[in-house]
Amino acid sequence: MESSVCPFCHLSVPSSELQWHANSHFEDEDKEANDMELGNQIQIASSSGSTDVVSISSLIGLQTRSNFYHVKDGLISLLRNCLELEARHNSSVTILSGYVDHFQSLPSVDVGWGCGWRNIQMLSSHLLAHRKEARKVLFGESGFVPDIAFLQRWLEIAWESGFDPPGAQHFNCKIYGTNHRIGTTECASLFRSFSLRARVVDFGPKESELFYLSVPGSTLGQPVKQRNAVRVSGPMDKYVHRQQGLIKGRHFCHSLHNGKSDNSKGKSEGPQVLIDWVWNYFSDKGLTISGSSQVVVSDRAPLYFQHDGHSRTIIGIQVKHQKNGTNQFNLLILDPSDGTVALERSLKTNVGWQKLIKRGVHTLKKPQYQLCYIDPGIASGEELNELKTINSIFFEL
């Protein structure tokens, strides 16, 4: 496919899309100015610190769709085709989430700080496409993924509604119009404010266990005891605590054993614990691996995947059966720092996509990781009130 470079953002796009892409920059400038003015009106309307029905109604009407490069037929469909071709030459099983739009960080918009918001957008695109109950509650039933500025306002409303008080306090309940970096906790808070059952899972060394909390009622992982933990407002604060005591800080964003696992028996060590958890999540412990190669689409949503320095979106997992009887695992990941056009091109030509999407166990070198996943269904009543406290379930690496 012939491509050209945009003279404004220097992004490589298909030549047939160049005019549309270039014109969108001017449209975005006008839209951004209007959004900022109207967004300021919303902030003024809710300056009392309480969630105002009128301000929410205004936000629903004012919010705008996030601009992104749309891949015809979707990246997941293209990836599935490549994986099926690959499976003809090896004994492997791959489990994928359903449809996901890729939202890349843009040089003139959010490079260096926006990865968390982009992952929220990717996860939102899946929920809107696959879960009717989520479509009815997300973003005022708009049916689309808002741009970062309006996601920021939705997060402020979540804080005003009482979700994650420590996080709200850390940001002083203000994040709209800023380039503050966010993480898993903010992702969970935003989705929980729409009554979705967003859960947080932590992976780290035993000595860091006191920095984590368990999630009562979580559908995944082994039950763990409740712990009195240091209250942290963001997913990366615990990393700063480890190095600097209790000084608060934020992170910086830069560019299965026969198919099954049982973490409770202690058979896995180190990063394999995380890999096994992801496998169990996508397979829902109900997939039996046979000797034949296959690619399966799960009903599970993608995972928000955080570590110290960056966050990405896990869209699936692959296991290859080696001749020596061992299994080789690869996480399948969409990275906001990658260009959507490059991803599309590599998948359509079946060239180079592995380097962009696959991440083996050997790449998991960070001491701690954090995931956010969303259970099916809508919370209400006391359950919704309990979701205002952001806790996590802990697994030792």
From TrEMBL:
Keywords: Hydrolase
Pfam family, one: Peptidase_C78
UFSP1/2/DUB catalytic domain residues: 91-372
GO molecular function, one term: ubiquitin-like protein peptidase activity
Hydrolase in keyword set: yes
Keyword Metal-binding among UniProt keywords: no
Highest taxon above the source species: Eukaryota
Protein name stated in the entry: UFSP1/2/DUB catalytic domain-containing protein
